[in-house]
Every structure is written in structure tokens, then in C-alpha cells.
TrEMBL record:
Residues 73-257 form the SsuA/THI5-like domain. It is found in: Periplasm. Keywords: Signal. The keyword Signal applies. It comes from the Bacteria. Pfam families: NMT1. This is NitT/TauT family transport system substrate-binding protein. Its main location: periplasm. SUPFAM superfamilies: Periplasmic binding protein-like II. Belongs to the bacterial solute-binding protein SsuA/TauA family. The keyword Secreted does not apply.
Length: 340
């Protein structure tokens, strides 16, 4: 018996319908794996979730659920297209049920009256400063006054890059000429020579390195070096409005289980990047052996495999630092994390 995952068309062209088996699903999680169980069609719960686009690491969510039906805990998912910055606006508007949000973005949204919560794992920070292989730049400070491209200012990737730069006495808004755009567009600017550097995300960073360009800094390393905090820098978790979670607790629980299961599967088996379907989702076309080997080495760190007190404390620490740096005004005045 089969079921179709519906693809929305917000913020980009529809990528087509994906067919996934619905015979096996998960109802509980043990040692990071779901216990297989038969989920009847009537028991499947509908949810609208963000579908990451080419040039981003989040594409494994729908791709791995399609490949491994046992990762599906009984959800009828409408995958909605968009970019990292767009997803956050769609969540606030109600056009999306679940999507990626980090603590900084959530705090900004709270200042505008939104009440969002993070209730599961998603991605660790994987931003990198990339320059041309033959450029003279060795450190982000060398790029003062130069042109750089990065993710949309509504994305937590940009907020993190701004925070980490500020910890090293650099102001992304004043010290650089910044262009904002989706990952693929930023690479086009970089390849044409329209910008001197790009603050990129995976898998794009690894693609550029395989082409001979240089990584002169990682945002997560900048954070660690400045704060002395060796905890993994969480970028975003799976998020929704507090109201939606309150009214759909079982759906939210299944979503959290699925994202955690997907992340653990890929992090423990990065050779999955050699699957043409996974490559296609990320926008990788005819990747070389060198690129695939680099991706196997570099991608596992991207996927958050825990949702616990340590991760929540990391988000709290980020807020403290961002408030001190005046990047966000204040903490949300409600409990913004949930463990379901």
C-alpha cells in the first residue's frame, strides 16, 4: 500500500510528488531507532513541513523518509518549498506547521508578538567563510570593506554569522559590503567574481573546497574560540507556534521523532551521500569521488543527533551572548523550548 507526500509551491517551483511506502512506521524511539509498527491510513496525522531546496543540507529530511519507510512515524506530510529565511516567515504567518528556527530568530519573532517554540533537533551550525583559492585573504578581518554574500538576514545562518563575527570585533552590517540571497544564488555571485567571499552552508561549502577554494573560518569555530564553549553550536531546531504544539501534541511528538531519527541515520551512515537520490535533493550533479569523500567527512557534523538539556542550554547561552552584543533585544518572556 502506498501514500503520496504532497509538495507545495511556496517560494519556488514544485519539485514533483514523491511516493513513499506507508506500511512501516515508528511509534516509539529506542536507542535512536524507531520500533516498526503498522500505521493505518486513518491513524496518520497531517502536517505541513518545510522542504529544503537544492544547495542546503536539510534536504535529507524528505529524501531519507522516502528511502527508509521505517523512519516515518505515521505522518501525512505536505512538504512546502522555500529557503531558510522564507520558512521562518511562513511559520509565523501560519502557512507552515513545522520548520527550522533557532533561538536568535525566535527571540526576534517574539519581539514582534509571535510565540514560537523549539521542540526537536534539526541542524548544527555549518556556516563557513569561503574565498577564492588564489585570493590573498587569510582571515575574515582581511575582508573588511570587501564584498561578501550570505544567507537572507531572516535566517539563523546570518544571525549566527553576525554574532560570531561580533565576538571577533567585526560588524557584518558596517565592515563589509553584504549581498543577501539563497545559497545557490550566492555561489553564482562568487563564481562570477561579483563578491570576494561567501559565508556558505553545506553542501555548498564542501563543493567550493573541492573546486580549489579555501575555507578561512567556520562560524562554529569562531564562536568556540571567542567564548571557550566547546559544546556543539546548535543552529536551528524543529519549531512551530506554541499554539500549534499545544493543539497537536501527538503530531509534534512524531515530527520530533522523525527529524531525530533522520539525523541519526545520516550522521551514522554518511555514505548515504553516494545515493543519487540524496545527491539530487541537495543539488549535487555528477559529483566527483573527491567531493563525495569530502562530503562523507564533513556532513555528519551538520545534523543534530540530540534533543536534551545540553542543547537547550546551548540555545540559552546563544541568547545571552546575542543580547550582550545587542544583536537581539531580549529573551522571549515565555518558555520557548519543549521536550515532548
Amino acid at each position: 500500500m502506498t501514500s503520496f507526500l504532497k509538495i507545495g509551491n511556496i517560494g519556488g517551483p514544485a519539485l514533483g510528488r514523491r511516493q513513499v511506502m506507508m506500511g512501516l512506521a515508528a511509534t516509539a524511539i529506542t536507542s535512536g531507532l524507531f520500533s516498526p509498527a503498522i500505521v493505518r491510513a486513518a491513524d496518520r496525522l497531517p502536517v505541513r513541513m518545510s522542504k529544503a531546496g537544492p544547495g542546503t543540507a536539510g534536504t535529507i529530511q524528505d529524501d531519507l523518509v522516502a528511502k527508509f519507510p521505517e523512519l516515518d512515524p505515521g505522518l501525512d506530510i505536505d512538504w512546502i518549498d522555500g529557503s531558510p529565511g522564507q520558512f521562518q516567515m511562513l511559520l509565523i504567518s501560519g502557512a507552515l506547521d513545522c520548520g527550522p528556527f533557532g533561538a536568535l530568530g525566535l527571540a526576534e519573532a517574539a519581539q514582534k508578538g509571535a510565540e514560537l517554540v523549539i521542540f526537536g533537533s534539526r541542524l548544527n551550525n555549518h556556516g563557513s567563510w569561503i574565498v577564492k583559492g588564489d585570493s590573498p585573504y587569510q582571515h575574515p578581518s582581511d575582508l573588511k570593506g570587501k564584498r561578501i554574500a550570505t544567507q537572507l538576514p531572516t535566517s539563523d545562518t546570518y544571525r549566527h554569522a553576525r554574532m560570531a563575527a561580533a565576538l571577533h570585533k567585526l560588524d557584518l552590517e558596517k565592515d563589509f559590503q553584504v549581498s543577501f540571497g539563497p545559497s545557490v544564488s550566492n555561489v553564482a555571485l562568487f563564481n562570477r567574481g561579483d563578491v570576494d567571499a561567501v559565508i556558505s552552508i553545506e553542501p555548498v561549502s564542501t563543493q567550493l573546497i573541492a573546486q580549489g577554494h579555501r575555507e578561512i573560518a567556520r562560524v562554529a569555530d569562531q564562536w568556540r574560540d571567542a567564548t571557550g564553549d566547546s559544546t556543539t553550536l546548535s543552529l536551528v531546531g524543529v519549531s512551530a507556534t506554541a499554539r500549534w504544539v499545544d493543539e497537536n501534541q501527538e503530531t509534534a511528538r512524531r515530527v520530533a521523532q522523525m527529524t531525530l531519527g533522520v539525523n541519526k541515520r545520516f550522521a551514522s551512515e554518511p555514505s548515504l551521500i553516494r545515493d543519487p537520490a540524496i545527491q539530487a535533493g541537495m543539488g549535487l550533479k555528477n559529483p566527483s569521488e573527491e567531493l563525495l569523500a569530502l562530503l562523507e567527512e564533513r556532513l555528519p557534523r551538520v545534523y543534530a543527533t540530540e534533543w536534551n538539556e545540553a542543547v537547550i542550554n546551548d540555545f540559552n547561552r546563544q541568547l545571552e551572548v546575542a543580547i550582550d552584543l545587542k544583536i537581539v533585544e531580549s529573551r522571549p518572556n515565555y518558555t520557548y523550548t519543549r521536550v515532548l
